[in-house]
Amino acid sequence: MKHQTLAGAFALVTAGALFAGAAEARDQIRIVGSSTVYPFTTAVAEQLGKTGGVKTPVVESTGTGGGMKLFCAGVGVEHPDATNASRRMKKSELEMCQKNGVKDVVEINIGFDGLTVAQSKQGAPIKLSLPQLLMAVAKEVPGPDGKLIPNPNKMWSDIDKSLPNTKIEVLGPPPTSGTRDSFHELLLEKGAEQIPALAALKKSDAKAFDRVWKTLREDGAYVEAGENDNVIVAKLEQNKNAFGVFGFSFLEENSAKLRGVPLNGVAPEFDAITGGKYPGARRMYVYIKKAHVGVVPGIDKFAAEYVSPKALGEDGYLAKKGLVTLPKAEADVVRKSITDMKPVAADALGS
């Protein structure tokens, strides 16, 4: 028995030494995840490469969901050190991490983004309510008698006579994207709740209600445009009647060509996002694998650079790239959590 215990202990030490040796062989931080957070993390990585005394981290755009799977797959050189997310980590994802040995995950709330519906400035300006948006992209919608039917709306004017008599075409993210999760939860679920027949369905059959706002059309009215939001921007330039779904930073970056569509009467603007008035406002995150800190060179420096005033401050270089920055008091709390490398608790996360 004693012999087995010693053997087990030796095996653990040996495994740790092998991980440390392998991880040290990788001298570059690897980061995966959200396409929306990608430009901000890339800016931090580039700054770190210039001034931090470490190699510039490698940043890959895999989508929030894809990033979580890669990040949570395990500890060691073959797994990423950090992941970007355009929504908060789910409790189920943290449990997946822990099941695979990723015990301690450190969360950085980097700031806000506004999930926007945008159009070319060559198109006629439009305002949409959240129910109208739901009626445009959902696979099933209430018919005249309130019962669910396959979505019959081909033109925007089919939804409301005040809307343009143009074909519905909405370009948006795929299921692996955190932007897709936000699109469903911030905009479509809220739109469904504001339609009387669906509000009644929510009370009588919550699962059927969830299927409505979670299931999008497959007839060409909603087009999955991939993880790269720049592809959507290019397509909007080509088609003045199309609409795209992506983060506020991309709208800001392309403001010469695109305009944001007001939703429920509120335009996607900086003050409306930070003030919580804009319905598509959302927080964005970076998650760090604590087990890799001190093993893969520079992870602590990367985290410190990300939360530094010169990056995350109101006039920092991330704000210049379109990040809606945190209020100072919140930013100070985030900085302290990174200094302490405090892991996120499961009970703080949603399902």
Mean pLDDT: 88
Unreliable runs, pLDDT <50, ≥5 residues? 1-18, 20-24
Largest sheet: 9 strands, mixed
* Helix-and-strand structural type: alpha/beta
Radius of gyration: 22 Å
Description:
With 351 residues, this protein is α/β, with parallel strands linked by helices. It is built from 16 helices and 11 strands. It has helices at residues 2-25, 38-51, 64-71, 91-99, 130-137, 156-159, 178-193, 196-204, 206-214, 229-238, 248-253, 270-274, 299-307, 309-312, 317-320, 328-340, and strands spanning 30-33, 58-59, 82-85, 105-120, 140-142, 148-150, 170-172, 222-224, 243-247, 258-260, 281-289. Strands 1, 2, 3, 4, 7, 8, 9, 10 and 11 form a 9-stranded mixed sheet that branches. Strands 5-6 form a two-stranded antiparallel ribbon. It is globular and about 60 Å long. The two termini are 42 Å apart. 43% of the residues are buried. Mean pLDDT is 88; it is low at 1-18 and 20-24.
Layout of secondary structure:
Elements: H1 2-25, E1 30-33, H2 38-51, E2 58-59, H3 64-71, E3 82-85, H4 91-99, E4 105-120, H5 130-137, E5 140-142, E6 148-150, H6 156-159, E7 170-172, H7 178-193, H8 196-204, H9 206-214, E8 222-224, H10 229-238, E9 243-247, H11 248-253, E10 258-260, H12 270-274, E11 281-289, H13 299-307, H14 309-312, H15 317-320, H16 328-340
Parallel strand pairs: 1-2, 1-3, 7-8, 7-9
Antiparallel strand pairs: 3-11, 4-9, 4-10, 4-11, 5-6
